# Entry
Amino acid sequence: MAQSLNYLKETPSQTAGPYVHIGLAPGAAGFDIYTQELGWDIAGPNAKGERIRVEGLVIDGTGSPIKDVMLEAWQANAAGVYAHPEGGGDVEEGFRGWGRVITDFATGEWGFDTVKPGRTPGRNVGTQAPHINLWIVARGINLGLNTRVYFEDEAEANAADPVLNLIEWERRRATLIAKRTERDGTPVYRFEIRIQGEDETVFFDI
Amino acid sequence: MPSQGEFYQRDRERHPPAYTRDYKTSVARSPQYSAISLQNSVSEITGPVFGHNDIDPMDRDLLHNYAQPGESAIGERIILHGRVLDENARPVPNTLVEIWQANAGGRYRHKKDTYLAPIDPNFGGCGRTITDADGYYYFRTVKPGAYPWRNWVNSWRPAHIHVSVFGTGFAQRLISQVYFEGDPLIAKCPIVKTIPNQDAIDSLVALLDMNATIPLDSIAYKFDIVLRGRRSTLFENRLEGN
# Structure
């Protein structure tokens, strides 16, 4: 007999199911229970930088929007600092950098308001282009999917981004680049996530 | 400087794959290409931080957090308790734990749930708490009922409580489900069986914990949650700088 390593094993994932909103966004499920729901304000009132909106759809293998999906966003502030003890510094009062994103149940459209994140350090060398990390859960998704939103108007930073450059197939990198438009003077980035099929979005095993 | 490195990689033999034919909804909602493996950067080792100001202590008591004054939810009163640990067996303190569940009749308070079992006017079905310094958490609630769902013509979910946990880094983010010891529906459930490893399935089954019951009040189940552990940086392979 050999010794035992005595590590524990991570709890296995199970789907969030169709009623994820009850637990994580009860207002969307149709009832009011908490004095304060979490994750509806990503940047807070004091965050510096450009105010933006990110919108999109999550589309399944049949080409239909996934109307019961829930996303979480995690991002740095405009200076490239995450609101975390290892995040690289201090952030503005009220900046959490994390949000919960619920769809319109009728259409599957989602959107959130935030500030455009800054560049962040690469793992060992270099700099990561501005990006928002997304985690996607829904009925039928057995383990939350991780992806990243990059920005169309950051072409130079994107070209040098170590994560985008890790994607062997150059044409698949485009699935992570949000398209910029403007509405009432505010930049709106469109980001469609295709779970499978033509132009399947790149997901990461992080 | 961080004293710890990246998170241990996920053991894919203990997590369900994306495509699981017998859980029908996964078929059109599963990526076909492999995920790109990413060594952790600052974007993955960090994650949202929560504090006691974010929640109310009452939020962990599902018997009363949606009940009229003087009333409580109907059903078998239970305590669900345990610790959030990492794979190094260290407690994960001050982390947010959120749960949601059906009522004792198997009905969810959700505008999309149309099961014929009635809504309990005194039961909302969600709760949240923050672990203490030892990683400990507890909830008071009712044991949820089994309910039918449209997978095969006659499919039933075992009694379960959904659980959502954060840890310290976005790479640890996890949602799972808690099942209850002795439930014969566990072995029949297509969602349970998305997990390809029996030992991993068993780790989702909460045990009756007589020592934690409150005599003449509530029965108790113990459920520990394990999040990914982090590598110690014994040798230089740093996340930051050059």
